[in-house]
């Protein structure tokens, strides 16, 4: 047998939310809704769809611009930065793995929180780094405990704000106080995949600029959530040019496909679509809070497009399976927690109806 690298032997491949077609096939259901992967329930902007169709009509036989020059220029103008402050990646996921590939050695330690995005663990483990998991406080990152865990081997700290899956937020002051404490030779990867959904006045603003004051910070952004482009895989990092250039060395030559680049350029300006998605999320959040309160279900207030709650009177895996059989896909987590993505009005109502049925039948 040919042996793979030792670091990957115990890695369990990432388990995404179950696809709708899978569940339809397994249970013979015609109608299934998926509220399991924090996707955009309003689909994709019409402006973006038109730009994609126009582009496809011209042919997709030519390799993409590997540097994603037009997208970087568009982002530079929009965010008042320089093109060399950006690295465009195949979704935010690739940003995470490229950072790990460029910076982590097997002797390094990384710090991350419990109950956060699992790709931080996997990207670090693949490089052989040691993982230090810090417990949460009230289902949020405990930044003091993270600082206390820093030692001479610490190379990188992963921060998700607002956090997936708990939906909790670290305020701007908490983040800057934390960054004031972290030594400059430790990379901080600040992932704000969900920040566009936050409605708290204390939410960090313009965190893509953090590197200007804190050169050891890289901010991760994605077009998969509020922009509705999860299927095309576009994300990016902002940071100081020297760090971006090092990460660029490990990037594949055409990592971001041409349609992803076209879609992202057009998605950035469609303010009407972004507002619709934001408003739908706020309405859906209010509605789901009410449902949980009526059912006496303990839930965590969210600054994202998903809500974390405790499975009522059964374990989270059982609740997941029972709801799935009735055509509603959600996501179970350890510790008897469940996460539901906020959907359209109809999807939220269907989720509430099926949740009530499952509780009654139990
Ligand atoms: C916290 C967080 N970061 C990054 C990502 C990666 O998103 P994508 O690769 O689709 O850009 C996700 C996806 O769910 C996420 O939840």
TrEMBL record:
Catalytic reaction equation(s): L-histidinol phosphate + 2-oxoglutarate = 3-(imidazol-4-yl)-2-oxopropyl phosphate + L-glutamate
Cited InterPro entries: Aminotransferase_I/II_large, HisP_aminotrans, HistidinolP_aminotransfase, PyrdxlP-dep_Trfase, PyrdxlP-dep_Trfase_major, PyrdxlP-dep_Trfase_small
Matching Pfam families: Aminotran_1_2
The protein's Enzyme Commission number: 2.6.1.9
Domain of life of the source: Bacteria
KW Nucleotide-binding (keyword) present: no
Enzyme class: transferase
Molecular-function GO terms, alphabetical: histidinol-phosphate transaminase activity; pyridoxal phosphate binding
GO biological process: L-histidine biosynthetic process
Residues found modified as N6-(pyridoxal phosphate)lysine: 225
Recorded family membership: Belongs to the class-II pyridoxal-phosphate-dependent aminotransferase family. Histidinol-phosphate aminotransferase subfamily.
Subunit organization: Homodimer.
Name of this chain's protein: Histidinol-phosphate aminotransferase
Origin species: Anaerosphaera aminiphila DSM 21120
């Amino acid at each position: 047998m040919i042996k793979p690298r030792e670091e990957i032997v115990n890695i369990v491949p990432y388990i995404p939310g179950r696809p709708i077609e899978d569940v339809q096939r397994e249970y013979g259901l015609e109608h299934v809704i998926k509220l399991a992967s924090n996707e955009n329930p309003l689909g994709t902007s019409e402006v973006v769809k038109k730009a994609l169709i126009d582009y496809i009509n011209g042919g997709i036989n030519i390799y993409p611009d590997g540097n994603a020059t037009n997208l970087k220029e568009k982002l530079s103008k929009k965010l008042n930065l320089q093109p060399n402050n950006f690295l465009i990646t195949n979704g935010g996921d690739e940003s995470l793995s490229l950072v790990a590939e460029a910076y982590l050695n097997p002797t390094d330690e990384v710090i991350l929180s419990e109950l956060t995005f699992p790709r931080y663990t996997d990207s670090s483990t693949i490089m052989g780094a040691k993982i230090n998991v810090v417990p949460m406080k009230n289902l949020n990152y405990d930044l003091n405990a993270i600082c206390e865990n820093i030692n001479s081997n610490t190379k990188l700290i992963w921060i998700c704000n607002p956090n997936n899956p708990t939906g909790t937020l670290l305020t701007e002051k908490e983040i800057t106080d934390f960054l004031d404490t972290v030594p400059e030779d430790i990379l901080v990867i600040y992932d704000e995949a969900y920040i566009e959904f936050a409605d708290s006045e204390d939410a960090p603003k313009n965190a893509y600029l953090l590197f200007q004051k804190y050169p050891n910070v890289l901010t991760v952004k994605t077009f998969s959530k509020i922009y509705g482009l999860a299927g095309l895989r576009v994300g990016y990092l902002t940071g100081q040019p020297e760090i971006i250039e090092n990460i660029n060395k490990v990037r594949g030559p055409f990592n971001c496909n041409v349609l992803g680049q076209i879609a992202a350029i057009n998605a950035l300006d469609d303010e009407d679509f972004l507002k619709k998605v934001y408003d739908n999320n706020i309405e859906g959040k209010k509605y789901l809070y009410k449902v949980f309160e009526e059912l006496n279900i303990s839930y965590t207030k969210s600054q994202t497009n998903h809500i974390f709650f405790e499975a009522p009177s059964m374990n989270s895996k059982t609740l997941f399976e029972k709801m799935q059989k009735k055509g509603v896909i959600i996501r179970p987590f350890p510790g008897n927690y469940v996460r539901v993505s906020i959907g359209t009005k109809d999807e939220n109502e269907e989720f509430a109806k099926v949740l009530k049925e499952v509780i009654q039948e139990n």
